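Bug #77: duplicate submission created two jobs. Keeping one. Sequence:
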Amino acid sequence: MPLTPWLSHYKTDFELARRRRGESIQFDDLRCEAFDRFLLLGFPTANDESWRSIDVTPLAETYFTMAARPADGERDATVGDLSVRDACVELVFANGYLMAARSRTSALPNGAVAAPLASLLASHADELGAFFARVARVDHLPLVALNTALFEDGAAILVPPRTAIDAPIHVRFISTGEADATPAMSQPRVLVVLGEESRATVVESYTGPDGVDYFTNAVTEVVLGNGASLDHYTVQDESTAAYLTAATHVIAGTNANYRSNAIALGGAFVRNERIVTLRGERATCTLNGFYVADGNRLVNTHAVIDHAGPGCVSRERHTSILAGRAQGVFSRSIAGAESQKTRTRLVVRALLSPNARLETPHTVAIEPLPDDDSAKRARVIGGFIRASLNRLRVPSLRTSVEQLFERQLGRLR
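Kept job's structure:
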């Protein structure tokens, strides 16, 4: 692909970051390989099957610059907080950098680890090398390649076999929008590895000051051993002027259970992608999504589920509230469901105002969003919200999300 002015801009940032980091030869080679793939592939286009109907021009042709490292705690108070009070560990990152003074840790059972990813990649390269960038591969996914090349830090959660972590682990990513030359971009990264018959709950939250233009490109890799179980929550309350792309890649072993709840409230351009491989026999996954948009905002949801093992089960439930002239795009791809004699189920519900639209090839239960009676409008929206929040199993998280929705309702009414 020709090196456009926008791609040249990313190349300059990559070379500056590479010289600053001074990483090991092995990891530097991985980053260089990832960035070469990004330059070769370029940004996705509407010609890509999974990006149909999506105009990525505003994202692809904006000169985003790597976000600045903030002083620990700087501007943090100006960003809406999403509290998970009963979390046993909370790792806080601002613009992709660890904020040690804002983070809190505690001893986890049986030698389990929840720690900054960059330090573990340096100290346990061989152990993490079996997983990192092996689940979310850079070969044909340009935004995964960009994240792998440019991420500063993130979270690594490693749970040994037959270990249960009852309290949630909270990974909090804040974007301040600050950079040497705005708009800024950051590349959050999370790696979760659960050994055989282990159990954990992980919450990822993404926030930023409203009205600020920036780009967050997040990648999460999840590996579940045989019989492992993960409750995974992602809550996004970014600036309504921001661009957010989030890709979660999962590999599940025999009898493993992956449950995902993705909630998107902010962003001018939002892409939420979950790619799950049910590799072992009788592995299961549940993908729930709840998305709210108004104005001219776009929310794009894409799911890929590979029933690679026999007897697997997948369930999906997606709910959208689209007001104003907002646009929603939902697509999914299922592989192996017939040949492996597995089961799959999909439910899509949408609450739409007259000028909003939802594009999807799948059957959708659509209800109109009343635009004349504010009391009736509030009741209808409240019913949609309550039905979705019932699926949140972490009480403190549910309380925080309810508070976020209260703020959202002011715009939707």
